[in-house]
Design goal:
This protein is an alpha+beta fold. Helices cover about 35% and strands about 25% of the residues. The strands form 3 sheets. The chain has an 8-stranded mixed sheet with strand order 4-3-5-6-7-8-9-10, sandwiched between helices.
Length: about 290
Amino acid sequence: MSEYGNGTDTGHDAGAVTDLLSLARQAAAAGAAVLAGRDAGALEATSKSSDSDWVTAFDVAAEHAVRAVISGARPQDVITGEELGTTTPEGTPDAGRLRWSIDPLDGTTNFIRNIVYYGTSVAVADRSGSWLAGVVHAPALRRIYWASRDGGAWVSEDGAVRRLGGPTAGRGKLLGTGFSYDPATRSAQVAELGDLLGGYGDVRRLGSAALDLCLVADGGLDAYTERGLNEHDFAAGALIAEEAGAVVHRPALRSMLDGGPTEAERLTAVLTAGPPDLVAALEDRRAAESA
């Protein structure tokens, strides 16, 4: 067992990170197995912040499944999940304690409507906040994306594994994005979209930030930018994109250990991913609009 495995934090030891990636893959697979049992008659969908922000019985069941795998192997760790909040075990030392960020069902609206872009996202960070491993498991797509710090990014599609190399420059570039559930924020996003599309041939809005970032890693999208994300939306996908060679500018959100960002802070924060020149251009356009 590696030193991460027995609860001693020794930095980014390659063997330790490999163990964490293996656990993240097991945990994401447990969540994805719940999603793979999708039953339109058992969704139990209810709205949260708006009539486009949903949670289903599958979101909750998948998070329980993910947490069971992580807690069974590393009971001392902190877990933050979209549906069940942050759990910090009592009576365990901070040394060796890591933090896991879970989105049990990223793309809930897609899931409800049987649109295939959804999956379980699991990522783990050390005490300094450095992301060590991340997995996005998309059962309807039959794809598993994963990455570890300094270990590259990979995808398994129908069992065939290949390394991800990020987007390559070409004509007709595609920009991925998403829109907020908050009406005022959404209106602002629509208004700025035309300027953001400068230099792009088209835009895609697939409904899952985690998978959008994986598509940047795989070259399906040339860049991705979105305002108002939660940490669990991008924790795994951002690392996968980075390890594929993309530049990722994460929003500077308040740590979940400190209660996380306020709603106002979250709605103004922006994540951008892609090649350096495209990321710089997107950020310049956003800066010009906010000036």
